[in-house]
## 1
Amino acid sequence: MQAFIVHRYGDPTARRIGEVPLPEPASDEVLVKVHAAGINPLDSKLAAGAYKAVLPYRTPFILGHDLAGVVERIGRGVTRFQPGDAVFARPRDGRIGTLAAFIAVNEADLARKPANLTMEQAASLPLVGLTAWQILVERAHVEAGQKVLIHAGSGGFGTIAIQLAKHLGAHVATTTGPANLALVQRLGAAVAVNYRSERFEDRLEGYDLVINTQDKATLERSIGVLKPGGQLISLSGPPDAEFAREAGLNPLLRLVVGAMSAAIRRKARRHAVRYAFHLMRASGAQLERLTPLLENGTIQPVVDRIYPFAQIAEAFAHLESGHARGKLVVRID
Ligand SMILES: NC(=O)c1ccc[n+]([C@@H]2O[C@H](COP(=O)([O-])OP(=O)(O)OC[C@H]3O[C@@H](n4cnc5c(N)ncnc54)[C@H](OP(=O)(O)O)[C@@H]3O)[C@@H](O)[C@H]2O)c1
């Protein structure tokens, strides 16, 4: 079958479409024929080698963390799915590779595709939907009336996080460029700050939660927006010791990782706010919690562009420009 393969870390010319054997599903796995695959900055960072210490994929490996498709065959122990079911998923770390004609996915990572969505729309959702759920619901327990700042509201993550935060009853602020202010307001942001002409910390104060997706300077400036007791959660680093423990890193790496966030944790403590890094994880059960919200239109996917598989290099160039509007999806035919 055809797949998009990373042959060497850190070399964009060493990622290309090639032939690989069809995967054989283990007893708890489902073989899925992939119809569409969403792409994420995580794919680019992985291929660049940025996650080697935490996610040590051995080259060559197939890229891709999001899929929508149809069950082709099931392992002996699979109980929840049948051939012919339409599904979507973010396969667990270590078992990624959705940019391919087929992939074997653990049953626990899969959910039925929301009935109202196209394959391309469904493929845009798992990674960012799970991230938004894990931060807003599981980690920060966002409640009605709380104030939440989501940086980069027009990106793949932000477009879904704004809608989920709004659904939870939060007052949502976001940052984006001038061309996307109307989009983020339509998605539910009460305050949209143009990062090119305004400083968000001049307009916002007393926030309960800030979700950072940007650089170190944005992360540090975000502290001033929070009220005492507020939470600063970063998706773009630096990682912290709790994350290193959960990731099962060895004691030396844990020390190194802990030191990476020492400065921001110190600054956060001085302002009586808490800092945490979050790395999302696969969960079919959480996708099923999102499905009713997708099927009743509370959360609507935002797909910027759909690329044919043969144009996957263009899709990654668009992603890596840092200016996608919602998600980029690759159609696997
Ligand atoms: N740790 C995790 O589990 C996890 C999960 C999901 C995402 N992430 C990380 O979160 C980050 C965002 O992911 P994504 O998928 O949303 O990326 P994305 O879709 O590539 O984000 C693109 C968007 O960012 C906006 N943007 C660019 N520079 C900005 C700035 N300085 N301030 C505010 N907005 C800005 C752009 O708006 P304009 O075009 O108007 O500039 C564009 O719409 C990435 O670093 C990703 O790796 C991590």
## 2
Amino acid sequence: MKKATIIYWSGTGNTEMMANAIAEGVKSSGIDVEVVRVENANKDMVINSEILAFGCPSMGAEVLEEEFMEPFIESLSDVDFSGKKVALFGSYDWGDGEWMRNWVARMKEYGANLVDEEGLIIRLTPDEEGINNCKALGERLAKE
Ligand SMILES: Cc1cc2nc3c(=O)[nH]c(=O)nc-3n(C[C@H](O)[C@H](O)[C@H](O)COP(=O)(O)O)c2cc1C
């Protein structure tokens, strides 16, 4: 049985809504999924999951949140991502998605196999279409 884990940081709840909708999509495919705030996550959760989604809004000036998410992602640089499927997601506001483009490039350098090469980004609070896109991403992650 495959294990799915979604690890995210969210300050005002937008990225958290995305995380929960992605989890619904994964669950609808019959796969167990754990949704964890990065503050409570550890590297073993990543090592022991075949399906992974990481979420973080654009913070600072087009960077990952710096207290928890940035060091956590940095800690994954030596994880063996072969055989794992990965998705990235997050909310933003005024930018053009630069933080996500940089994050995608970084995860590719780590060897991550991204199901969505652009990352799923949604401006501020996801609307119904946004939530449906999140669910669809979860379904894609769960597919063989
Ligand atoms: C300190 C701070 C820095 C931010 N920097 C950016 C930024 O560089 N680019 C951008 O598009 N949005 C930026 N935002 C907007 C957030 O990405 C946006 O509000 C997002 O919806 C927050 O997601 P959350 O509810 O999951 O915390 C910033 C917000 C805060 C509070």
